[in-house]
Amino acid sequence: MTGGAPPRTPSATAGEHRDDGTRAAHDTTAPGAPADHDASAAGGGRAAAGRRREMAVAVAACLLGAAVVLLTVGATWVRVRVAATVADEPVAAAAPLAASLSGSELAPALAGLGLVGLAGVVAIAATRRAGRVVVGVLVLLAGVAAAVVAGRIAADPLSAARATARVRDLAPGATADLRDLRRTAAPWLAAAGGVLLAGGGLLVALRGRTWSALSARYRSPAARPVDAWEAIDRGDDPT
Protein backbone atom coordinates (compact mmCIF):
# COMPACT_ATOMS: atom_id res chain seq x y z
CA MET A 1 0.00 0.00 0.00
CA THR A 2 1.23 3.41 -0.84
CA GLY A 3 0.82 6.30 1.63
CA GLY A 4 -1.16 8.76 -0.55
CA ALA A 5 -4.12 10.95 0.25
CA PRO A 6 -7.47 9.14 0.30
CA PRO A 7 -9.57 9.61 -2.80
CA ARG A 8 -12.15 12.40 -2.63
CA THR A 9 -15.69 11.28 -2.87
CA PRO A 10 -18.09 12.95 -5.33
CA SER A 11 -20.30 14.23 -2.51
CA ALA A 12 -17.39 15.93 -0.79
CA THR A 13 -16.27 17.48 -4.07
CA ALA A 14 -19.80 18.77 -4.74
CA GLY A 15 -20.00 20.17 -1.22
CA GLU A 16 -16.76 22.05 -1.73
CA HIS A 17 -18.06 23.45 -5.01
CA ARG A 18 -21.22 24.55 -3.29
CA ASP A 19 -19.18 26.20 -0.56
CA ASP A 20 -17.03 27.92 -3.14
CA GLY A 21 -20.13 29.17 -4.96
CA THR A 22 -21.66 30.46 -1.75
CA ARG A 23 -18.45 32.28 -0.85
CA ALA A 24 -18.25 33.72 -4.35
CA ALA A 25 -21.83 34.93 -4.13
CA HIS A 26 -21.10 36.57 -0.78
CA ASP A 27 -17.92 38.06 -2.16
CA THR A 28 -19.75 39.60 -5.12
CA THR A 29 -22.81 40.92 -3.25
CA ALA A 30 -21.34 41.99 0.07
CA PRO A 31 -19.27 44.91 -1.26
CA GLY A 32 -22.33 46.30 -3.09
CA ALA A 33 -24.47 46.79 0.03
CA PRO A 34 -22.20 49.36 1.74
CA ALA A 35 -21.74 51.14 -1.58
CA ASP A 36 -25.49 51.45 -2.06
CA HIS A 37 -25.86 52.68 1.52
CA ASP A 38 -23.09 55.23 1.04
CA ALA A 39 -24.65 56.44 -2.21
CA SER A 40 -28.07 56.89 -0.61
CA ALA A 41 -26.53 58.65 2.39
CA ALA A 42 -24.60 60.97 0.09
CA GLY A 43 -27.75 61.73 -1.88
CA GLY A 44 -29.65 62.51 1.32
CA GLY A 45 -26.82 64.75 2.49
CA ARG A 46 -26.86 66.70 -0.76
CA ALA A 47 -30.64 67.10 -0.56
CA ALA A 48 -30.41 68.35 3.03
CA ALA A 49 -27.64 70.78 2.08
CA GLY A 50 -29.77 72.06 -0.80
CA ARG A 51 -32.69 72.68 1.55
CA ARG A 52 -30.44 74.53 3.97
CA ARG A 53 -29.19 76.73 1.13
CA GLU A 54 -32.76 77.49 0.07
CA MET A 55 -33.66 78.50 3.60
CA ALA A 56 -30.56 80.67 3.91
CA VAL A 57 -31.35 82.42 0.62
CA ALA A 58 -34.96 83.05 1.67
CA VAL A 59 -33.98 84.43 5.08
CA ALA A 60 -31.29 86.65 3.53
CA ALA A 61 -33.73 87.99 0.92
CA CYS A 62 -36.39 88.78 3.52
CA LEU A 63 -33.88 90.38 5.88
CA LEU A 64 -32.23 92.49 3.19
CA GLY A 65 -35.54 93.52 1.61
CA ALA A 66 -37.06 94.54 4.94
CA ALA A 67 -33.90 96.45 5.90
CA VAL A 68 -33.90 98.39 2.61
CA VAL A 69 -37.57 99.33 3.03
CA LEU A 70 -37.08 100.50 6.61
CA LEU A 71 -33.91 102.45 5.87
CA THR A 72 -35.36 104.26 2.86
CA VAL A 73 -38.58 105.22 4.68
CA GLY A 74 -36.70 107.84 6.68
CA ALA A 75 -34.87 109.26 3.66
CA THR A 76 -36.00 112.21 1.55
CA TRP A 77 -38.08 111.09 -1.43
CA VAL A 78 -39.29 114.39 -2.88
CA ARG A 79 -38.12 118.01 -2.80
CA VAL A 80 -40.70 120.57 -3.84
CA ARG A 81 -41.60 124.24 -3.62
CA VAL A 82 -45.10 125.01 -2.42
CA ALA A 83 -47.19 128.00 -3.41
CA ALA A 84 -50.70 128.64 -2.09
CA THR A 85 -53.38 129.73 -4.58
CA VAL A 86 -56.96 130.93 -4.07
CA ALA A 87 -59.13 131.16 -7.19
CA ASP A 88 -56.01 130.74 -9.36
CA GLU A 89 -54.35 133.73 -7.74
CA PRO A 90 -51.13 133.29 -5.71
CA VAL A 91 -51.26 134.27 -2.05
CA ALA A 92 -48.62 134.36 0.63
CA ALA A 93 -47.64 131.00 1.99
CA ALA A 94 -47.86 130.36 5.72
CA ALA A 95 -44.43 128.72 5.92
CA PRO A 96 -41.20 128.49 3.92
CA LEU A 97 -41.97 127.36 0.40
CA ALA A 98 -39.25 124.71 0.17
CA ALA A 99 -40.26 121.30 1.48
CA SER A 100 -38.42 117.98 1.68
CA LEU A 101 -40.80 115.04 2.02
CA SER A 102 -39.67 111.71 3.40
CA GLY A 103 -41.01 108.27 2.68
CA SER A 104 -42.78 108.12 6.02
CA GLU A 105 -44.74 111.25 5.04
CA LEU A 106 -45.57 110.09 1.53
CA ALA A 107 -46.28 106.44 2.41
CA PRO A 108 -46.84 105.92 6.15
CA ALA A 109 -47.71 102.23 5.67
CA LEU A 110 -44.25 101.32 4.40
CA ALA A 111 -42.70 101.19 7.87
CA GLY A 112 -45.27 98.66 9.00
CA LEU A 113 -44.70 96.53 5.91
CA GLY A 114 -40.96 96.52 6.58
CA LEU A 115 -41.55 95.42 10.16
CA VAL A 116 -43.71 92.57 8.89
CA GLY A 117 -40.73 91.46 6.82
CA LEU A 118 -38.41 91.54 9.84
CA ALA A 119 -40.89 89.58 11.93
CA GLY A 120 -41.13 87.08 9.09
CA VAL A 121 -37.38 86.41 9.30
CA VAL A 122 -37.77 85.28 12.92
CA ALA A 123 -40.94 83.32 12.16
CA ILE A 124 -39.28 81.43 9.28
CA ALA A 125 -36.73 79.96 11.68
CA ALA A 126 -39.24 79.33 14.49
CA THR A 127 -42.05 77.67 12.51
CA ARG A 128 -42.25 74.54 10.40
CA ARG A 129 -44.34 72.97 7.61
CA ALA A 130 -47.79 74.60 7.28
CA GLY A 131 -46.97 77.41 9.71
CA ARG A 132 -43.91 78.32 7.68
CA VAL A 133 -45.97 78.40 4.48
CA VAL A 134 -48.40 80.85 6.12
CA VAL A 135 -45.46 83.04 7.14
CA GLY A 136 -44.17 82.95 3.57
CA VAL A 137 -47.52 84.08 2.18
CA LEU A 138 -47.71 86.98 4.66
CA VAL A 139 -44.18 88.10 3.82
CA LEU A 140 -44.96 87.81 0.11
CA LEU A 141 -48.03 90.04 0.48
CA ALA A 142 -46.08 92.58 2.53
CA GLY A 143 -43.34 92.72 -0.10
CA VAL A 144 -45.80 93.12 -2.97
CA ALA A 145 -47.62 95.91 -1.12
CA ALA A 146 -44.35 97.72 -0.35
CA ALA A 147 -43.19 97.45 -3.96
CA VAL A 148 -46.51 98.73 -5.33
CA VAL A 149 -46.77 101.66 -2.92
CA ALA A 150 -43.17 102.78 -3.36
CA GLY A 151 -43.22 102.23 -7.11
CA ARG A 152 -46.39 104.28 -7.54
CA ILE A 153 -44.91 107.22 -5.64
CA ALA A 154 -41.64 106.93 -7.54
CA ALA A 155 -43.53 107.11 -10.85
CA ASP A 156 -45.92 109.92 -9.89
CA PRO A 157 -45.28 111.60 -6.51
CA LEU A 158 -47.44 114.67 -7.16
CA SER A 159 -50.71 113.45 -5.68
CA ALA A 160 -49.00 111.84 -2.68
CA ALA A 161 -47.01 115.01 -2.01
CA ARG A 162 -50.12 117.19 -2.16
CA ALA A 163 -51.86 114.94 0.39
CA THR A 164 -49.11 115.21 3.03
CA ALA A 165 -49.62 117.23 6.20
CA ARG A 166 -46.48 119.27 5.47
CA VAL A 167 -47.84 120.59 2.18
CA ARG A 168 -51.26 121.30 3.66
CA ASP A 169 -49.62 123.31 6.42
CA LEU A 170 -47.75 125.35 3.84
CA ALA A 171 -51.01 126.28 2.13
CA PRO A 172 -53.69 126.61 4.85
CA GLY A 173 -57.14 127.35 3.50
CA ALA A 174 -55.82 127.37 -0.07
CA THR A 175 -54.86 125.04 -2.87
CA ALA A 176 -51.25 123.90 -2.84
CA ASP A 177 -49.44 124.59 -6.08
CA LEU A 178 -46.40 122.31 -6.27
CA ARG A 179 -43.48 123.58 -8.30
CA ASP A 180 -39.96 122.42 -9.09
CA LEU A 181 -40.69 118.90 -7.89
CA ARG A 182 -37.59 116.70 -7.78
CA ARG A 183 -37.43 113.00 -6.91
CA THR A 184 -34.58 111.12 -5.29
CA ALA A 185 -33.60 107.49 -5.76
CA ALA A 186 -35.07 106.49 -2.38
CA PRO A 187 -38.54 105.44 -3.60
CA TRP A 188 -37.00 103.25 -6.29
CA LEU A 189 -34.78 101.63 -3.68
CA ALA A 190 -37.80 101.03 -1.46
CA ALA A 191 -39.61 99.40 -4.38
CA ALA A 192 -36.59 97.17 -5.00
CA GLY A 193 -36.58 96.22 -1.32
CA GLY A 194 -40.24 95.28 -1.60
CA VAL A 195 -39.52 93.09 -4.61
CA LEU A 196 -36.69 91.36 -2.73
CA LEU A 197 -38.94 90.84 0.27
CA ALA A 198 -41.67 89.40 -1.94
CA GLY A 199 -39.17 87.05 -3.60
CA GLY A 200 -38.04 85.71 -0.23
CA GLY A 201 -41.63 85.22 0.88
CA LEU A 202 -42.47 83.39 -2.33
CA LEU A 203 -39.57 81.00 -1.82
CA VAL A 204 -40.71 80.31 1.73
CA ALA A 205 -44.30 79.71 0.61
CA LEU A 206 -43.23 77.27 -2.11
CA ARG A 207 -40.40 75.41 -0.41
CA GLY A 208 -40.63 76.14 3.32
CA ARG A 209 -42.63 73.01 4.07
CA THR A 210 -39.59 70.82 3.25
CA TRP A 211 -37.08 72.73 5.39
CA SER A 212 -35.96 71.50 8.79
CA ALA A 213 -37.10 73.14 12.00
CA LEU A 214 -34.97 75.20 14.35
CA SER A 215 -32.19 73.20 15.95
CA ALA A 216 -32.85 72.08 19.52
CA ARG A 217 -29.94 74.09 20.90
CA TYR A 218 -31.60 77.32 19.74
CA ARG A 219 -34.94 76.56 21.37
CA SER A 220 -35.94 77.91 24.74
CA PRO A 221 -35.00 75.70 27.71
CA ALA A 222 -38.67 74.84 28.29
CA ALA A 223 -39.17 73.72 24.68
CA ARG A 224 -36.12 71.52 24.10
CA PRO A 225 -35.56 68.03 25.54
CA VAL A 226 -33.85 67.94 28.93
CA ASP A 227 -31.28 65.55 30.31
CA ALA A 228 -31.12 64.21 33.85
CA TRP A 229 -29.01 67.08 35.20
CA GLU A 230 -31.33 69.74 33.76
CA ALA A 231 -34.32 67.92 35.23
CA ILE A 232 -32.67 67.89 38.66
CA ASP A 233 -31.90 71.62 38.34
CA ARG A 234 -35.58 72.24 37.63
CA GLY A 235 -36.61 70.20 40.68
CA ASP A 236 -37.96 67.25 38.63
CA ASP A 237 -37.25 63.60 39.32
CA PRO A 238 -35.69 62.11 36.14
CA THR A 239 -36.20 58.49 37.33
TrEMBL record:
Keyword Hydrolase: no
Entry annotated with the keyword Ribonucleoprotein: no
Region (Disordered): 1-46
Transmembrane spans: 56-78, 106-126, 133-155, 185-206
Name listed for the protein in its UniProt record: Trp biosynthesis associated, transmembrane protein, Oprn/Chp
Organism expressing this protein natively: Candidatus Protofrankia datiscae
Pfam families found in the cross-reference section: Trp_oprn_chp
Compositional bias (Basic and acidic residues): 15-26
Superkingdom, taxonomy of origin: Bacteria
Keyword terms, alphabetized: Membrane, Transmembrane, Transmembrane helix
